[in-house]
Amino acid sequence: MLAAQFAVMRELLDERRWRVYLGTEAQALGRGGIAAVARASGASRATVAAGVAQAADPDALAALAPGRARRPGAGRPKAEDAQPGLRQALGGVLEEATRGDPVSEITWCSLSLRDLERQMAARGFGCKKDAIARILCEDGYSLRAMAKVLEGRQHPGRDAQFRHINAMIRAFRSAGHPVVSVDTKKKEQLGPYHRDGRTWRPKGDPVKVRDHDFPDEELGKIAPYGVYDIAADTGFVSVGTSHDTGAFAVSALRLWWQQEGSLRYPGATRLLVTCDAGGSNGYRCRLWKDQLAVLAAQTGLKISVVHFPPGTQCRCLTN
Length: 319
Hints:
By secondary structure, this protein is α/β, with parallel strands linked by helices. The protein folds into three domains: 2-62; 79-138, no CATH class; 158-307, Nucleotidyltransferase, domain 5. The protein contains twelve helices and eight strands. It has helices spanning 2-10, 15-29, 33-41, 45-56, 58-62, 79-82, 86-95, 113-122, 129-138, 158-174, 246-264, 286-299; strands spanning 98-99, 108-109, 179-184, 188-189, 221-229, 234-240, 270-275, 302-307. Helix 12 (286-299) links the parallel strand 7 and strand 8. Helix 1 crosses helix 3, helix 2 packs across helix 3 and helix 8 (113-122) crosses helix 9 (129-138). It is elongated and about 100 Å long. 18% of the residues are buried.
Protein backbone atom coordinates (compact mmCIF):
# COMPACT_ATOMS: atom_id res chain seq x y z
CA MET A 1 0.00 0.00 0.00
CA LEU A 2 2.81 2.41 0.83
CA ALA A 3 4.59 1.67 -2.47
CA ALA A 4 1.46 2.45 -4.50
CA GLN A 5 0.87 5.62 -2.51
CA PHE A 6 4.47 6.78 -2.93
CA ALA A 7 4.40 6.08 -6.70
CA VAL A 8 1.53 8.56 -7.10
CA MET A 9 2.93 11.24 -4.81
CA ARG A 10 6.48 11.17 -6.26
CA GLU A 11 5.27 12.64 -9.55
CA LEU A 12 3.58 15.56 -7.77
CA LEU A 13 6.33 16.72 -5.40
CA ASP A 14 9.74 18.30 -5.88
CA GLU A 15 12.78 16.98 -4.05
CA ARG A 16 12.32 19.01 -0.88
CA ARG A 17 8.58 18.32 -0.47
CA TRP A 18 9.14 14.66 -1.31
CA ARG A 19 11.80 14.37 1.37
CA VAL A 20 9.61 16.01 4.06
CA TYR A 21 6.61 13.93 3.01
CA LEU A 22 8.60 10.72 3.49
CA GLY A 23 9.69 11.98 6.89
CA THR A 24 6.11 12.57 8.02
CA GLU A 25 5.11 9.06 6.89
CA ALA A 26 8.07 7.59 8.79
CA GLN A 27 7.08 9.50 11.92
CA ALA A 28 3.53 8.22 11.66
CA LEU A 29 4.73 4.61 11.46
CA GLY A 30 6.77 4.94 14.63
CA ARG A 31 9.60 2.50 15.38
CA GLY A 32 11.08 1.05 12.18
CA GLY A 33 9.27 3.67 10.10
CA ILE A 34 12.41 5.00 8.42
CA ALA A 35 13.41 1.53 7.15
CA ALA A 36 9.85 0.72 6.02
CA VAL A 37 9.45 4.00 4.13
CA ALA A 38 12.86 3.63 2.51
CA ARG A 39 11.99 0.14 1.24
CA ALA A 40 8.56 1.19 -0.08
CA SER A 41 9.67 4.44 -1.72
CA GLY A 42 13.07 3.39 -3.07
CA ALA A 43 14.75 6.34 -1.32
CA SER A 44 17.77 5.91 0.89
CA ARG A 45 17.48 5.79 4.67
CA ALA A 46 19.56 8.97 4.87
CA THR A 47 17.01 10.80 2.73
CA VAL A 48 14.11 9.62 4.87
CA ALA A 49 15.99 10.49 8.08
CA ALA A 50 16.70 13.97 6.73
CA GLY A 51 13.00 14.34 5.99
CA VAL A 52 12.15 13.35 9.58
CA ALA A 53 14.55 15.98 10.90
CA GLN A 54 13.22 18.70 8.62
CA ALA A 55 9.60 17.86 9.40
CA ALA A 56 10.34 18.22 13.12
CA ASP A 57 12.21 21.52 12.64
CA PRO A 58 10.17 24.11 10.69
CA ASP A 59 13.09 26.55 10.91
CA ALA A 60 15.17 24.21 8.73
CA LEU A 61 12.59 24.50 5.96
CA ALA A 62 12.35 28.26 6.30
CA ALA A 63 16.14 28.55 5.97
CA LEU A 64 16.00 27.38 2.35
CA ALA A 65 15.44 30.03 -0.28
CA PRO A 66 12.22 29.73 -2.32
CA GLY A 67 12.65 27.30 -5.18
CA ARG A 68 15.68 25.54 -3.68
CA ALA A 69 15.58 21.89 -2.63
CA ARG A 70 19.01 21.85 -0.93
CA ARG A 71 21.28 24.20 0.92
CA PRO A 72 23.80 26.09 -1.24
CA GLY A 73 26.84 23.92 -1.80
CA ALA A 74 25.03 20.68 -1.07
CA GLY A 75 25.36 17.66 -3.31
CA ARG A 76 28.34 15.97 -4.92
CA PRO A 77 30.96 18.41 -6.24
CA LYS A 78 31.64 18.52 -9.96
CA ALA A 79 34.43 16.31 -11.20
CA GLU A 80 36.55 19.27 -12.31
CA ASP A 81 36.09 20.96 -8.91
CA ALA A 82 37.05 17.85 -6.95
CA GLN A 83 40.07 17.10 -9.16
CA PRO A 84 42.19 20.16 -9.97
CA GLY A 85 43.70 20.04 -13.43
CA LEU A 86 41.02 17.75 -14.87
CA ARG A 87 39.68 20.27 -17.39
CA GLN A 88 43.20 21.09 -18.60
CA ALA A 89 44.02 17.38 -18.97
CA LEU A 90 40.81 16.83 -20.93
CA GLY A 91 41.73 19.75 -23.18
CA GLY A 92 45.05 18.08 -23.93
CA VAL A 93 43.31 14.84 -24.89
CA LEU A 94 40.88 16.72 -27.11
CA GLU A 95 43.52 18.78 -28.88
CA GLU A 96 44.53 16.10 -31.37
CA ALA A 97 40.94 14.91 -31.96
CA THR A 98 39.23 18.29 -32.36
CA ARG A 99 37.61 19.08 -35.70
CA GLY A 100 35.85 22.13 -37.08
CA ASP A 101 36.48 25.62 -38.39
CA PRO A 102 38.66 27.49 -35.88
CA VAL A 103 36.69 30.67 -36.65
CA SER A 104 33.37 28.97 -35.82
CA GLU A 105 31.98 28.85 -32.29
CA ILE A 106 31.08 25.15 -32.63
CA THR A 107 33.64 22.34 -32.78
CA TRP A 108 33.44 18.58 -32.36
CA CYS A 109 35.62 15.66 -31.30
CA SER A 110 36.28 12.45 -33.24
CA LEU A 111 36.65 10.36 -30.05
CA SER A 112 33.69 8.79 -28.28
CA LEU A 113 32.84 9.64 -24.69
CA ARG A 114 33.98 6.22 -23.50
CA ASP A 115 37.30 6.64 -25.33
CA LEU A 116 37.78 9.95 -23.55
CA GLU A 117 36.84 8.34 -20.23
CA ARG A 118 39.50 5.64 -20.70
CA GLN A 119 42.16 8.13 -21.68
CA MET A 120 41.37 10.32 -18.68
CA ALA A 121 41.57 7.27 -16.38
CA ALA A 122 45.01 6.50 -17.83
CA ARG A 123 46.07 10.01 -16.78
CA GLY A 124 44.83 9.44 -13.23
CA PHE A 125 41.50 11.29 -13.38
CA GLY A 126 38.21 9.65 -12.40
CA CYS A 127 35.80 11.30 -14.82
CA LYS A 128 32.76 9.44 -16.17
CA LYS A 129 31.30 9.92 -19.62
CA ASP A 130 28.36 12.04 -18.41
CA ALA A 131 30.70 14.53 -16.78
CA ILE A 132 32.85 14.58 -19.93
CA ALA A 133 29.78 15.26 -22.07
CA ARG A 134 28.81 18.17 -19.82
CA ILE A 135 32.30 19.68 -19.99
CA LEU A 136 32.37 19.31 -23.78
CA CYS A 137 29.04 21.14 -24.10
CA GLU A 138 30.28 23.92 -21.82
CA ASP A 139 33.40 24.29 -23.99
CA GLY A 140 31.39 24.62 -27.21
CA TYR A 141 31.51 21.05 -28.50
CA SER A 142 28.47 19.31 -29.96
CA LEU A 143 27.46 15.95 -31.41
CA ARG A 144 28.06 15.92 -35.16
CA ALA A 145 27.60 13.36 -37.91
CA MET A 146 30.03 12.92 -40.78
CA ALA A 147 29.59 15.28 -43.73
CA LYS A 148 30.18 14.21 -47.32
CA VAL A 149 32.04 17.30 -48.50
CA LEU A 150 35.47 16.02 -49.59
CA GLU A 151 35.88 15.41 -53.31
CA GLY A 152 38.47 13.61 -55.34
CA ARG A 153 40.83 15.06 -57.87
CA GLN A 154 39.42 18.02 -59.80
CA HIS A 155 39.79 17.89 -63.57
CA PRO A 156 40.54 21.28 -65.17
CA GLY A 157 37.58 20.84 -67.52
CA ARG A 158 35.09 19.84 -64.82
CA ASP A 159 33.14 23.09 -64.90
CA ALA A 160 33.15 23.15 -68.69
CA GLN A 161 31.64 19.66 -68.68
CA PHE A 162 28.73 20.87 -66.54
CA ARG A 163 28.18 23.85 -68.81
CA HIS A 164 28.15 21.53 -71.83
CA ILE A 165 25.53 19.28 -70.21
CA ASN A 166 23.32 22.25 -69.31
CA ALA A 167 23.62 23.64 -72.82
CA MET A 168 22.52 20.33 -74.34
CA ILE A 169 19.56 20.09 -71.95
CA ARG A 170 18.42 23.60 -72.89
CA ALA A 171 18.80 22.87 -76.61
CA PHE A 172 16.77 19.65 -76.44
CA ARG A 173 14.03 21.20 -74.31
CA SER A 174 13.72 24.26 -76.55
CA ALA A 175 13.31 21.94 -79.56
CA GLY A 176 10.58 19.95 -77.78
CA HIS A 177 12.65 16.77 -77.42
CA PRO A 178 12.54 14.73 -74.20
CA VAL A 179 15.37 14.88 -71.67
CA VAL A 180 15.56 12.24 -68.96
CA SER A 181 17.86 11.52 -66.05
CA VAL A 182 18.38 7.86 -65.15
CA ASP A 183 19.92 6.07 -62.20
CA THR A 184 19.69 2.83 -60.24
CA LYS A 185 18.41 3.34 -56.72
CA LYS A 186 19.16 1.41 -53.54
CA LYS A 187 18.45 -2.31 -53.80
CA GLU A 188 15.81 -3.67 -51.42
CA GLN A 189 15.03 -7.16 -50.13
CA LEU A 190 11.74 -8.77 -51.08
CA GLY A 191 9.49 -9.94 -48.28
CA PRO A 192 8.11 -8.66 -44.97
CA TYR A 193 11.11 -6.51 -44.02
CA HIS A 194 11.23 -3.23 -42.14
CA ARG A 195 11.01 -0.08 -44.26
CA ASP A 196 11.52 3.54 -43.28
CA GLY A 197 8.47 5.77 -43.18
CA ARG A 198 4.95 5.51 -41.77
CA THR A 199 1.49 4.71 -43.12
CA TRP A 200 -2.01 5.44 -41.84
CA ARG A 201 -3.28 2.31 -40.10
CA PRO A 202 -5.98 1.47 -37.53
CA LYS A 203 -4.77 1.90 -33.96
CA GLY A 204 -3.12 -1.25 -32.63
CA ASP A 205 -2.76 -2.78 -36.10
CA PRO A 206 0.76 -2.02 -37.41
CA VAL A 207 2.21 -3.78 -40.43
CA LYS A 208 4.03 -6.81 -39.02
CA VAL A 209 7.52 -7.46 -40.39
CA ARG A 210 10.41 -9.72 -39.52
CA ASP A 211 12.47 -8.87 -36.46
CA HIS A 212 15.74 -9.42 -38.39
CA ASP A 213 16.74 -8.38 -41.89
CA PHE A 214 18.54 -11.58 -42.89
CA PRO A 215 18.52 -12.04 -46.70
CA ASP A 216 15.98 -14.44 -48.16
CA GLU A 217 17.75 -16.60 -50.73
CA GLU A 218 14.47 -17.58 -52.42
CA LEU A 219 12.90 -14.13 -52.80
CA GLY A 220 16.16 -12.28 -53.42
CA LYS A 221 16.37 -8.53 -53.95
CA ILE A 222 14.79 -5.96 -56.26
CA ALA A 223 16.63 -3.22 -58.14
CA PRO A 224 14.58 -0.02 -58.70
CA TYR A 225 15.67 1.93 -61.76
CA GLY A 226 14.44 5.52 -61.96
CA VAL A 227 13.74 7.57 -65.07
CA TYR A 228 13.14 11.27 -64.35
CA ASP A 229 11.54 13.42 -67.04
CA ILE A 230 13.16 16.82 -66.49
CA ALA A 231 10.70 18.88 -68.55
CA ALA A 232 7.57 17.24 -67.13
CA ASP A 233 9.05 16.99 -63.62
CA THR A 234 7.72 13.46 -63.24
CA GLY A 235 9.38 10.20 -62.28
CA PHE A 236 9.03 6.65 -63.49
CA VAL A 237 10.37 3.63 -61.59
CA SER A 238 10.93 0.22 -63.08
CA VAL A 239 11.56 -2.59 -60.60
CA GLY A 240 13.43 -5.73 -61.62
CA THR A 241 14.57 -8.88 -59.88
CA SER A 242 17.53 -9.50 -62.17
CA HIS A 243 21.00 -8.03 -61.78
CA ASP A 244 21.65 -4.34 -62.38
CA THR A 245 23.18 -4.66 -65.84
CA GLY A 246 23.25 -2.44 -68.90
CA ALA A 247 20.46 -4.48 -70.46
CA PHE A 248 18.30 -3.96 -67.37
CA ALA A 249 18.93 -0.20 -67.47
CA VAL A 250 17.92 0.07 -71.13
CA SER A 251 14.86 -2.13 -70.52
CA ALA A 252 13.70 0.36 -67.88
CA LEU A 253 14.25 3.22 -70.33
CA ARG A 254 12.33 1.31 -73.01
CA LEU A 255 9.45 0.72 -70.62
CA TRP A 256 9.31 4.44 -69.82
CA TRP A 257 9.20 5.33 -73.51
CA GLN A 258 6.42 2.85 -74.25
CA GLN A 259 4.21 3.83 -71.32
CA GLU A 260 4.89 7.56 -70.94
CA GLY A 261 7.50 9.06 -73.24
CA SER A 262 5.90 8.22 -76.60
CA LEU A 263 2.55 9.55 -75.36
CA ARG A 264 3.99 12.74 -73.89
CA TYR A 265 6.27 13.50 -76.88
CA PRO A 266 4.50 12.02 -79.94
CA GLY A 267 6.55 14.00 -82.45
CA ALA A 268 9.96 13.52 -80.85
CA THR A 269 12.82 12.30 -83.00
CA ARG A 270 15.63 12.67 -80.45
CA LEU A 271 16.17 11.71 -76.81
CA LEU A 272 18.80 13.02 -74.38
CA VAL A 273 19.79 10.79 -71.45
CA THR A 274 21.81 12.20 -68.54
CA CYS A 275 23.38 9.78 -66.06
CA ASP A 276 26.31 9.30 -63.72
CA ALA A 277 29.62 7.86 -64.85
CA GLY A 278 29.44 4.40 -63.28
CA GLY A 279 27.23 1.41 -62.74
CA SER A 280 24.95 -0.17 -65.32
CA ASN A 281 24.76 3.10 -67.28
CA GLY A 282 28.45 3.98 -66.97
CA TYR A 283 30.49 5.36 -69.82
CA ARG A 284 32.63 2.18 -69.94
CA CYS A 285 29.69 -0.25 -69.99
CA ARG A 286 29.59 -1.72 -73.51
CA LEU A 287 26.31 -3.54 -72.90
CA TRP A 288 24.65 -0.23 -72.05
CA LYS A 289 25.82 1.26 -75.36
CA ASP A 290 24.85 -1.84 -77.34
CA GLN A 291 21.33 -1.98 -75.94
CA LEU A 292 20.87 1.77 -76.47
CA ALA A 293 21.63 1.18 -80.15
CA VAL A 294 18.98 -1.55 -80.19
CA LEU A 295 16.47 0.80 -78.54
CA ALA A 296 17.26 3.54 -81.05
CA ALA A 297 16.61 1.15 -83.92
CA GLN A 298 13.31 0.00 -82.38
CA THR A 299 11.94 3.47 -81.63
CA GLY A 300 13.49 5.49 -84.45
CA LEU A 301 14.95 7.92 -81.92
CA LYS A 302 18.38 9.44 -82.15
CA ILE A 303 19.62 8.89 -78.57
CA SER A 304 22.34 11.08 -77.07
CA VAL A 305 23.95 10.33 -73.69
CA VAL A 306 25.85 12.74 -71.44
CA HIS A 307 27.66 11.53 -68.32
CA PHE A 308 28.25 13.60 -65.22
CA PRO A 309 31.84 13.76 -63.92
CA PRO A 310 32.95 11.11 -61.41
CA GLY A 311 32.00 11.89 -57.83
CA THR A 312 28.74 13.62 -58.75
CA GLN A 313 25.18 12.39 -59.00
CA CYS A 314 22.60 13.17 -61.62
CA ARG A 315 19.18 14.44 -60.64
CA CYS A 316 16.85 11.48 -60.47
CA LEU A 317 14.29 9.87 -58.18
CA THR A 318 15.13 10.02 -54.49
CA ASN A 319 12.12 8.16 -53.06
